[in-house]
Amino acid sequence: MTLHDLSQVYYLKSEINYLTVEIELLRMEAESITSAAFTDLPKSKSNQRSIENRIAKIIDYKEKCILMRLQLVDVRNEILEYIDSIDDSQTRQIFKLRFVDCLSWLSVAMSLGGGNTDKSVSQICYRYIAARNRKISHETSN
């Protein structure tokens, strides 16, 4: 598993959060158009189309969110399976805090305690990934 693979939980959560904010903004826009339609002003077909467009986007974004959440569950499970195969307890904890909980390196270090720094926990992680990938590469070349 590569660093890119391990980072997918973070990126999927980020995309889901983005879409959630967009959905809320579109909902508020549609509501403001709808509430304006209840005034004494004449009704406009462009307002109706504008509301319909926003509702269509909301539906599209909600469907994307559902698919991303399903993908997030799958990716998270793959990462947890990988992490569970790590022999060293501290390294497992570092990987869970970083790649499942999506904590910063500083937060990972603070969670572990014991005088760890953001640099030391990131080095443990990167060295582990490099060593494991070298081992896999060596095994497949033989």
Mean pLDDT, all residues? 90
State the helix count.
Answer: 6
- The N- and C-terminal alpha carbons lie at a distance of 20 Å
Total individual domains: 2
Rounded radius of gyration (Å): 23 Å
Q: Major β-sheet, in short?
A: none
- Low-pLDDT runs of 5+ residues are none
Helix content: over 70%
Structural class: mainly alpha
Shape: elongated
Number of strands: 0
Task: List the secondary-structure elements in sequence, H or E.
Answer: HHHHHH
How is this fold's topology laid out?
Elements: H1 3-6, H2 8-37, H3 45-84, H4 89-100, H5 105-112, H6 118-141
Helix pairs in contact: 2-3, 3-4, 4-5, 5-6
Describe this structure in words.
By secondary structure, the protein is an all-alpha fold. The protein folds into two domains: 1-85; 87-142, Orthogonal Bundle (Arc Repressor Mutant, subunit A), CATH 1.10.10. Helix content is 83%, strand content 0%. It is built from six helices and no strands. The protein has helices spanning 3-6, 8-37, 45-84, 89-100, 105-112, 118-141. The longest helix has 40 residues, at 45-84. The relative contact order is 0.11.
Identify the notable features of this structure and list them briefly.
83% helix, mainly alpha, Arc Repressor Mutant, subunit A, 142 residues
Summarize the structure.
The protein has 142 residues and is mainly alpha-helical.
